[in-house]
Design goal:
- The protein has 242 residues and is of the alpha/beta class.
- The protein contains 9 helices and 6 strands; from the N terminus they run H-H-E-H-H-E-H-E-H-E-H-H-E-E-H.
- It has a single domain, classed as Decaprenyl diphosphate synthase-like (Undecaprenyl pyrophosphate synthetase, 3-Layer(aba) Sandwich).
- Helices cover 45% and strands 15% of the residues.
- Helix 6 links the parallel strand 3 and strand 4.
- The protein is globular.
- Bound molecules: farnesyl diphosphate.
- Farnesyl diphosphate (FPP) binds next to helix 3, helix 4, strand 2 and helix 5.
Length: 242
Amino acid sequence: MRQKIGDEIVKNVPQHVAIIMDGNGRWAKKRGLPRIEGHRAGAGRVRDVVEKCLELGIKYLSIYAFSKENWKRPKNEVSGIMKLSEVFFRKEFKKLVKKGVYFVHLGDRNGLPGFLIKILDNIKKNNAEERKMYLNIAFNYSGRNEIVKAFKSLSELVQKGEIVPSDITETDIDRFLYTAGMPDPDLLIRTGGEMRVSNFLLWQIAYSELWITEVLWPDFSGQLFQNAIEDYMKRERRFGNV
Ligand code: FPP
């Protein structure tokens, strides 16, 4: 794309893209398969999008893999997603780290099964040295809960007398989020056609552009991701200005 469109437009490549990967269940149902098969197919799409980010020079990709609300799903679906995630990390982590992909967990470690906590610890120890891009995986994540967590941390600073409430700024809140130090998403993609944000990165998406497709996540492709990026690049962002 860089070669094709040229330097001027390349400047508009988003720095941070967030994705709500929806539609796995419907994809499976259409094929008469159990829902978990949709999640399995969906996990396979993540790699294509990461490769595309590396190719296009997108520095941050945030994907919504499992929300705190997802615990309400049937037990076998929940344990299936946990297992699939383990497989995803075992299969992809080393390969992607070699390409300079730095893994970040967004979410609560509490409540995760031991085998996933071990994997997260291993990721911390063996993460990429060269950070060509960040892959933020939201797992056991809730946007509201993340904001509550930031409030608690700030309240502790107030209690210790390290900050005065009237001095609290947006930047102070930013630094207690899982995404501390990262730019906010420029673009939020949602597959599966639903028109909602589902408690994903609530604070961070204040000015994100939205791109929603009917395509179900397991059918999403690197090319479709590129189409979303090209659409985004044509948009004019105003951040509340005229
Ligand atoms: C939403 O589809 C998808 C999920 C809740 C799970 C997504 C998880 C994966 C793709 C596994 C990958 C894991 C990692 C760590 C990358 P849905 O089930 O809500 O679909 P529906 O709306 O059609 O029912």
